[in-house]
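Appendix C. Worked example: Transmembrane protein
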Amino acid sequence: MEENKDVDQGFYKVRSYSSCLIKGFKLFADNLWTILKQTWTSVLLFSFCMAVCSFMYQPLARFVFTYVDPSNFPFFPKILFGMLLVLLLLAATLLSAFFGGQLTVLARNYVQTGHLRYMGKGRLMKVAMEPSGKLLAFAFIFLLMLAVLSGVFHYFVGVAWWSWFWDVMLILAVFIPYTAFVVSSLLPSKTVSLQLSNIRELYQSWGAWSAVFFISGLFCVLCTVFFCMPSLVLLFARSESFFMELGGDLTDLPVAFNVMQFLVVFLSAALSLFLFSTMYFSLLFMYGSQEKKKEEIALYEQEQKRLLQA
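Step 2, the predicted output written as structure tokens:
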């Protein structure tokens, strides 16, 4: 029992946002093989589904053609390509829930024992189902909130280039309570609380949360763009081939192109998802820091009340 107490104090410790970032990246680097052994099943499942979704361009185009005349939009191929990327992003957010559930099992072990333990594939998949279900529900709620708020804003303002800054700020604003609620729900002996006082406390540390999210997220996004660049080139080539076919060019892509697209998207998705563990662990340490800070503030206030009463 004493050992767990020491470990908890090691996790629940006041840290700067830079320290949270360093701890998160170091934990990922020091336990790379363990994380891979724990999560390879979810990484393969995610990558396979993303590779299959990458072939949704033609079905998506034919669906849009039933409601929209492409001749009315001069940049319709690029708009349709953007819609495919949004579809892939939504699918990635939802499909990553099982991977996040397996990482959560690792995080629970780290909080309780001080290190990431390998539990074995069978037991891990069983234990990871509960946090994976929660993550899936949270991801759906998060996307729904973003879609509604962003849709209402753009309905009245339009889609001018400056209006997309609203979406960035919206993601940051919604992401902070979302992250804290998710982590508090997934860690041992924690429950989700939607009290307004707790939400206010989260926004009081908005700068630190945003810094950790932005820096770790920027690193992951840049690496993801680098990994996915070949996939984007292949998807763009497929879209151009589709519209050339509609224009009368009957030259179709060879079968080898489909195989190459599947493999490239598969590898890009696997590398990108695995790398997002760094952001997960950085935000995890940020949560531990905020919890410890709240505990110290509460102890200080109790001590002040005791001195005043004395």
